[in-house]
Design goal:
The complex is a heterodimer. By secondary structure, chain A is mainly alpha-helical. Chain A has one domain. Helices cover about 75% and strands about 0% of the residues of chain A. Chain A is globular and about 60 Å long. The mean pLDDT of chain A is about 90. By secondary structure, chain B is mostly helical. Chain B has one domain. Chain B has 11 helices and no strands. The model of chain B has no long low-confidence stretch (mean pLDDT about 90). Classes of the chains: A mainly alpha, B mainly alpha.
C-alpha cells in the first residue's frame, strides 16, 4: 500500500515536471493565457461589488468577503485540478478511440496515470487568482489560510472525482462527454454562489451527488465558526466520494473494449 | 445573383443545426441553470422595491433577454474559424467563389438563427412562469426591440470574427475570446448599466459592449423613445465599425498566409 502511494506520487511529480517544461517552451502563450484567466475571473469581483453596492451588507446571508472566499476556493481548487489532472477531460475520448490501451499497458495504476498525463496552462492563472484574491480580501490570518489550503486540495480532488464519475458513464452509455461538461458547469456554478440561494431539491443535490457545498460552502462555515463535527463530516464525505469515484471507474474499466487503433504516446 | 449563394449557405447551415438538434441540448441546460441562479439571486436581493430603477419583474425579464443574446452566437463556431486559420484549412476556402467572411457570417447565422428562436421561446416561458407577463409598457417597443436585437447580433458577430481572425497573427487567441466574452457579460448582461457608477456609465455609453445586451434588453423592459433612438443609431455606427475592422484584419491576414503542402 505504502509503496503504491509512493509510486503514484513519484509518477505525478514526473508528469508535473514534464508537462510544465513542455508548456514553458511556448512562454508567450503561457503568460498570455494566465493573464487572460486572471482578467476573466476578476470581472466577477466587479459584479459582486456592484450587487452589494446596490443592495447592502448581506446577500443570502453572505457578506462580500464571504462571496470572495468561495470564489477564491473555487478558482484555486479548479486551477489545482486542471494543473495536476487535466487529462480527466479526455477520458471519454480515450475510451471511444481505444487510446486507453496505452495507459493500461504501463506498469502504474491506471487512473492516476490517465489523470496526470496532461496539464492546462491557463489553470495557473486560476490557481494564482484564488490566492491573490484571498490575501487581498481576507489578509493573513493563519486559520483562514489553513482552511483555504485544505479546501483547495479537497476541492480539486472533488472536482476531479465528479469528472471521473461522469466520464466513466462512457463505458456504459457511449460518449458521455456532454453529460460531463454539463455536470461540471453545474458544479462550478453551485460553488460560486451563496449557499442560501439554493433551496429544496437543488440544496439536496449540492450536499450529495453534486457536492459543491463540500467544496466551498462548508469550508466557509468552518472559517466563520470552527466546529469539529462539521470538519469531520467535510473530510469524511470527501474521502467517501473519492473512493466511490475510484471504485466506479475500476468497475467501468472491466467493460472496456479495445479498438484496433495503433498509437504512440510521445 | 451574388446574395443568393449566401442565403443558400444560411439555409444549409440552418438545416444542419436542425438535423443535429441534439447539440442544442447542452445550451438549453446551461440557459436554464443560468436563469435559475439569477432568479434565486435576485429573489433574495429584492424586497419589493426597485433597484437602480428596475423592478423585480423587469430584472428577471432583463436577465432572460440578455442571456438569449449571449447564447445565440456560439463561441464554438468562432473557435473553428481560428482553428481553420491555424491548421491551414483556410487555404481551401480562399480559392472558392465566395468571400470568406460573408460565407462564415451566413454559415454561423444559419446555426444561430435556430438558437435565437429556441432561446427566445425558453426566455419567454421562463419569464412568464417565474414573474408573470413581460413588463412591456408600449406595444411599439416590440418592433424596435427586434431591430435592435438584429443589430446587436451583427456587432457581436463581427467583433467575434475580428478576434477569430487574429489567429493570422498570434498563435493563441483564445484569451482574447475569454476577455471579450467577460466584457460583454459584465457590461450589461448580468446587471444593467444603471448599476454602475455614473462616470463608468458615461464611458460605456460610447463603447460597443453594452449595445450588445443592455441596450436592446432595456428597450424591451423599459421602453422610451429617446433610449430607443440613441440605441439604434449607436448600434448602426458600431456595426459599421465592426464590419470595417473585420474586413481590414482579414485583408491584412490573408496576405500573410503561408500554407505548406496539404
Amino acid at each position: 500500500m505504502f509503496m503504491e502511494v509512493k509510486k503514484i506520487i513519484r509518477l505525478f511529480s514526473r508528469y508535473f515536471k514534464l508537462n510544465l517544461a513542455s508548456q514553458m517552451e511556448y512562454r508567450t502563450s503561457f503568460f498570455v493565457q494566465i493573464f487572460g484567466m486572471v482578467i476573466n475571473n476578476a470581472t466577477f469581483i466587479f459584479f459582486w461589488h456592484l450587487a452589494f453596492d446596490a443592495t447592502g451588507t448581506y446577500i443570502a446571508g453572505y457578506t462580500f468577503k464571504d462571496v470572495m472566499f468561495i470564489w477564491a476556493v473555487t478558482s484555486s481548487a479548479f486551477g489545482l485540478a486542471q494543473i495536476l489532472f487535466n487529462n480527466v477531460h479526455r477520458i471519454s475520448q480515450l475510451i471511444i478511440t481505444g487510446e486507453l490501451d496505452t495507459y493500461l499497458l504501463q506498469p502504474v495504476p491506471v487512473l492516476p496515470n490517465i489523470l496526470g498525463a496532461r496539464t492546462q496552462v491557463s489553470a495557473w492563472g486560476d490557481m494564482l487568482y484564488g490566492i491573490v484574491l484571498l490575501s487581498i480580501v481576507w489578509g493573513f490570518s493563519w486559520n483562514v489560510w489553513l482552511i483555504f489550503a485544505l479546501s483547495i486540495i479537497l476541492g480539486g480532488l472533488l472536482f476531479t472525482a465528479i469528472n471521473v464519475i461522469t466520464h466513466t458513464l462512457t463505458f456504459y452509455l457511449g460518449n458521455a462527454s456532454m453529460i460531463t461538461s454539463t455536470v461540471f458547469e453545474f458544479m462550478i456554478t453551485f460553488s460560486i454562489y451563496p449557499e442560501g440561494i439554493f433551496q429544496g431539491f437543488v440544496r439536496l443535490l449540492i450536499f450529495s451527488i453534486l457536492p459543491a457545498a463540500f467544496i466551498t460552502h462548508i469550508p466557509l462555515r468552518l472559517v466563520g465558526n470552527f466546529n469539529v463535527s462539521t470538519f469531520a463530516i467535510w473530510i469524511g464525505f470527501t474521502i467517501v466520494f473519492l473512493a466511490i469515484a475510484c471504485i466506479f471507474f475500476n468497475r467501468g474499466l472491466k467493460k472496456y473494449e479495445s479498438g484496433n487503433l495503433i498509437i504512440t504516446r510521445l | 445573383m451574388k446574395i443568393k449563394k449566401y442565403f443558400t449557405i444560411f439555409k444549409i447551415s440552418l438545416r444542419n443545426a436542425l438535423f443535429y438538434g441534439k447539440n442544442l441540448f447542452g445550451g438549453i441546460i446551461m440557459y436554464t441553470l443560468f436563469i435559475y441562479v439569477f432568479f434565486r439571486l435576485w429573489g433574495v436581493i429584492y424586497k419589493g422595491d426597485t433597484i437602480a430603477g428596475y423592478s423585480y419583474n423587469q430584472m428577471i425579464w432583463y436577465v432572460c433577454i440578455t442571456e438569449v443574446i449571449i447564447c445565440t452566437i456560439g463561441l464554438g463556431m468562432m473557435y473553428e474559424i481560428s482553428q481553420d486559420i491555424k491548421n491551414g484549412a483556410i487555404a481551401y476556402q480562399l480559392g472558392r467563389p465566395y468571400n470568406y467572411i460573408l460565407y462564415s457570417y451566413s454559415n454561423i447565422m444559419g446555426n444561430s438563427f435556430i438558437r435565437l428562436i429556441m432561446y427566445s421561446i425558453m426566455g419567454f416561458i421562463f419569464g412568464t412562469v417565474l414573474v408573470g407577463a413581460p413588463p412591456v409598457n408600449n406595444i411599439a417597443a416590440f418592433p424596435f426591440f427586434i431591430i435592435s436585437l438584429v443589430l446587436a447580433l451583427v456587432i457581436q458577430f463581427f467583433l467575434l470574427m475580428s478576434i477569430g481572425l487574429t489567429a493570422f497573427f498570434v498563435e493563441e487567441n483564445r484569451p482574447f475570446f475569454f476577455i471579450y466574452q467577460k466584457l460583454i457579460l459584465m457590461l450589461g448582461t448580468l446587471v444593467p448599466l444603471e448599476f454602475f457608477p455614473r462616470w463608468m456609465q458615461t464611458i460605456l455609453r460610447y463603447m460597443p459592449f453594452s449595445y450588445i445586451t443592455w441596450a436592446p434588453a432595456k428597450i424591451f423592459v423599459d421602453f422610451s423613445i429617446q433610449h430607443t433612438l440613441t440605441t439604434i443609431i449607436t448600434q448602426l455606427i458600431w456595426s459599421a465599425i465592426a464590419i470595417m475592422l473585420c474586413f481590414s484584419i482579414y485583408r491584412k491576414g490573408v496576405k500573410s498566409v503561408h500554407v505548406h503542402g496539404g
